[in-house]
Amino acid sequence: MSRIFKSYGFITGKVEQLFEMEFSQKLTPYDINVKQYGVLIKIDEKPNSSQKEIADELKIDRTTMVSFIDHLEALKYLTRTKNPQDRRSYCLTITDKGKQILEDCWSTLEQSEKKILSPLSDQEARLLKDLLIKIFKNQEES
Amino acid sequence: MSRIFKSYGFITGKVEQLFEMEFSQKLTPYDINVKQYGVLIKIDEKPNSSQKEIADELKIDRTTMVSFIDHLEALKYLTRTKNPQDRRSYCLTITDKGKQILEDCWSTLEQSEKKILSPLSDQEARLLKDLLIKIFKNQEES
DNA sequence: TATTGTTATACTCTATAACTATA
DNA sequence: TATAGTTATAGAGTATAACAATA
After folding, report:
1. pLDDT of res. B140
2. Fewer Cβ within 10 Å of end Cβ, chain B: N or C?
3. CA distances in angstroms from B53 to A11, B94, B98, listed in the order given
4. B6 to chain A nearest CA, in Å?
5. CA/C1' separation B11–C18 (Å)
6. In chain A, at which residue ranges do the beta strands (DSSP E only) sit?
7. Residues A27-34: contacts with CB under 8 Å, at least 24 apart
8. What are phi and psi of A29, to 5 degrees?
9. What parts of chain A have a pLDDT lower than 50?
10. Which among B55, B47, B37 is positioned nearest to B93, based on CA atoms?
11. Number of C-beta neighbours around residue B47 at 10 A
């Protein structure tokens, strides 16, 4: 086996590439990319968040966030209203259409994930996720 | 916990981001990026490969490969010689300097990996790699 | 006619700096 | 003075199309 597999970074990147390719293909009909899908989830979970709050949580540049929100607003997946408490910022809220898209996307993406994870048993898949979350949570704290 | 963690794709991407950030920082002094490091490994393992062979294996566009090889050649990490059997293509071989760089990079990157994987036990880390390789190998066959 | 490598070009994604309006 | 959002712009990184040399 190639020496390249000695590297966790390399193999993680390769598997990520599989998800990325599948996801971006599946999201094309909804006219959003993977990061914009993530933004929509966050707004659904924390209604009235500002652009900066979402940007910080997902590590997206605030200028990039502007174009993301412009796009999602144009698609009527969310609404921007001025925050009365601080008129510099917006309150972002997901629309019914946005909620529907989120459900549709999720069921489609879940199928993609199952396909990619097919060589693993259910137990192995759960274990994989636990290990990845452990790594992610650890650095989030530091 | 955020719904976003339901997605294997998302969490895999986040962990990949950790490796990517660490790796690209560590490779900066060597003036190469992560993909170019991968190219160098492949040439070390399979001397006299052509640009196309490397490109296919690593799923890199052949026009992108030209600039990668230009760069690695300028750094004297590899040499290009015309293939006598097929003068359309090059035989790529790593130089002694390139081999040294590869060793240096690997020991540096290994430290980065250990840092990122620190929340896992040795056994868990090994398991994680096995699971990822299982996924990658599966799609490579199909 | 097909393939390897090259070049010019364009496209996507993202970041930097300067701006506005509010605080 | 500092912050949220915006705009114009520039920079990676990569891909498309047309080309030369060789098969």
Report:
1. 72
2. C
3. 20, 15, 19
4. 9
5. 36
6. 78-82, 90-94
7. A27/A105, A27/A109, A30/A101, A30/A104, A30/A105, A31/A71, A31/A75, A32/A71, A32/A72, A32/A75, A32/A77, A32/A101, A34/B9, A34/B13
8. -60, -25
9. none
10. B47
11. 11
Which chain A residue has the Cα nearest residue B107?
A: A7
Q: Are A40 and A72 in contact (CB under 8 A)?
A: yes
Is residue A13 less than 8 Å (CB to CB) from chain B?
Answer: yes
pTM (two decimals): 0.88
Look-up: residue for tokens 């490796």? B19
The separation between the first and the last C-alpha atoms of chain B, rounded to the nearest angstrom, is 35
* Residues in contact with B91: Cβ distance below 8 Å, sequence separation at least 6, in sequence order: B47, B48, B49, B50, B80, B81, B82, B83
Kindly list the residues from chain B whose CB atom is less than 8 angstroms away from the CB atom of residue A11: 129, 132-133, 136
Residue B108: both structure tokens together: 């540096």
CA distance to A43, A72, B56, per residue, from B71 (Å): 43, 40, 19
Q: What angle do CA A72, A33, A109 make, to 5 degrees?
A: 110
- Which amino acid is residue A47, in one-letter code? P
